[in-house]
Specification:
Order of helices and strands: HHHHHHHHHHHHHHHHH
Largest sheet: none
Number of strands: 0
Strand content: under 5%
Length: 453
């Protein structure tokens, strides 16, 4: 049974520590703010570049898709670091926790430099592979090449943010992300219009902002590591440990990306109305996912800390309480997203057919939001436990389960609103249910609760 006493702890000095609810909120709310601040980069770039003309905006759409994909595949730098740092901190080894964070940053820096060089060199080929030509292709290549130097900064942001989350500090990333969004907006306007650089100025402004954000967050961690006596230079064993911990999470991310791309492909086959409606539903779903992901981040940090302290009862208590938060938040989001869908879809389109398709699909997605909350939190719990290998295999299994269902929708569902409703029943229903079953089955056992540093 949940009681007020069970949800609180006694700290070593005899004072009552904050309740689990307060700890969850203290981590989740700033994390949500940082998550929401990040998409502002793309929005600002779009608003500034959009006034340069259609070719520039289309080029930005292609280039930003490539960059978001590259950075998204590297999110393991944050997740793996959060789990490892939280576990060391829970074991009472703050110096070791900061050492893991420093090693993670070195890995991010090296990977970022390699990816920046590859992005710059392959930009024309990548843009061509996406089907772009003429002025659109030219603008896309220009943006990719001017923004590529920012990749080391962006990956540094991922790794350092992961380390700070493991240290149960989500406020510093929020402050840096907010300041970065403001600086990015100012630099974009100044370089694109003031310096007359066009779309190149937008890429450069974003790259400079990302490098600055990475430097600031790295400096915060380095200061803490120096105070704790941790090693600051790169260490082969530490880099390998971080890469090994992140590899399964990379596989997990790849399966999620594959499912999303498959869903877009199916929507494309259901006609222009369904595809346009899918874009609306997907954007709203992504916004809701930020709120649920913030809870998952809190679960990562708290569960990793509890396991590092070898406190299995507290780990179980955190599992139950964070799941209650996830399901509850999903239910609230579902009510809002589904109940008000007929109002806010007007912000996206004036086409009545697209509006109808989006509303129907949003209602379907809204019904599944409590389950999505369960899935997001369980993902966070298992990532915090360092159970990446299971998550990789579970990701493959859920993708295998989803593929025939998605293909069935493509082959059998009608065009327009009915087809889009079936597609979201497949993605938000079948795919998320498969994830809920696999992660829920794992969480019921004890194999994931490995204690100690």
């Amino acid at each position: 049974m949940w009681t007020r006493e069970r949800l609180a702890e006694i700290s070593p000095d005899g004072r009552r520590a904050p309740s689990v609810d307060r700890q969850i909120l203290a981590l989740a709310v700033p994390a949500l703010g940082a998550l929401v601040a990040e998409p502002l980069f793309v929005l600002v770039d779009s608003a500034v570049v959009g006034h340069l003309g259609t070719a520039s905006l289309a080029g930005l759409a292609l280039a930003s898709t490539v960059l978001v994909t590259v950075v998204g595949l590297c999110v393991f730098l944050a997740y793996a670091t959060t789990a490892a740092v939280a576990r060391r901190l829970g074991a009472g080894d703050r110096g070791g926790a900061l050492q893991v964070g420093v090693d993670g940053m070195w890995l991010a820096l090296g990977l970022g430099i390699v990816l920046a060089a590859l992005t710059w060199a392959t930009a024309p080929w990548v843009v061509g592979a996406l089907g772009a030509a003429g002025a659109t292709a030219t603008e896309a290549v220009v943006y990719l090449r001017w923004s590529a130097p920012g990749l080391p900064g962006m990956l540094l942001v991922l790794a350092s943010t992961g380390a700070l989350r493991g240290l149960q500090d989500t406020r510093t990333p929020l402050v840096v992300a907010t300041a970065g969004a403001v600086v990015n907006a100012a630099l974009n306007v100044a370089l694109v219009y003031g310096a007359g650089m066009g779309i190149a100025g937008s890429g450069l402004g974003t790259a400079l902002t990302q490098l600055a954000m990475g430097a600031v967050l790295a400096a915060v961690l380095v200061r803490g590591a120096r105070a704790a006596g941790s090693r600051l230079g790169p260490h082969a064993a530490g880099l390998w440990a971080n890469a090994r911990a992140g590899a399964p999470l990379l596989v997990r991310t790849l399966t999620l990306r594959a499912a999303i791309l498959l869903t877009v492909w199916v929507a494309t086959g259901l006609g222009a109305t369904a595809l346009a409606g899918h874009q609306v539903v997907n954007a709203v779903w992504g916004l809701a996912a930020f709120a649920l992901d913030a809870l998952a981040i809190a679960a990562q940090a708290l569960v990793g800390h509890a396991l590092g302290a070898a406190d299995v009862p507290r780990t179980r208590a955190l599992l139950r309480r964070t799941l209650q938060w996830g399901v509850g938040a999903g239910a609230v989001l579902g009510l809002v997203l589904g109940g008000a869908s007929w109002l806010y879809v007007r912000l996206f389109t004036t086409d009545p057919d697209v509006r109808h398709a989006a509303v129907v699909a949003l209602v379907v997605a809204a019904v599944t939001m409590p389950m999505a909350g369960w899935v997001f939190v369980l993902d966070g719990v298992l990532i915090g436990a360092g159970d990446g290998r299971f998550l990789a295999w579970a990701g493959v299994a859920t993708l295998v389960a989803y593929v025939p269902v998605a293909l069935g929708v493509r082959a059998l569902a009608p065009d327009g609103a009915p087809g889009l409703a079936w597609l979201w029943a497949a993605f938000a229903g079948v795919f998320m249910l498969a994830r809920a079953v696999t992660t829920g089955w794992r969480a019921r056992g004890t194999a994931w609760m490995v204690t100690g540093a």
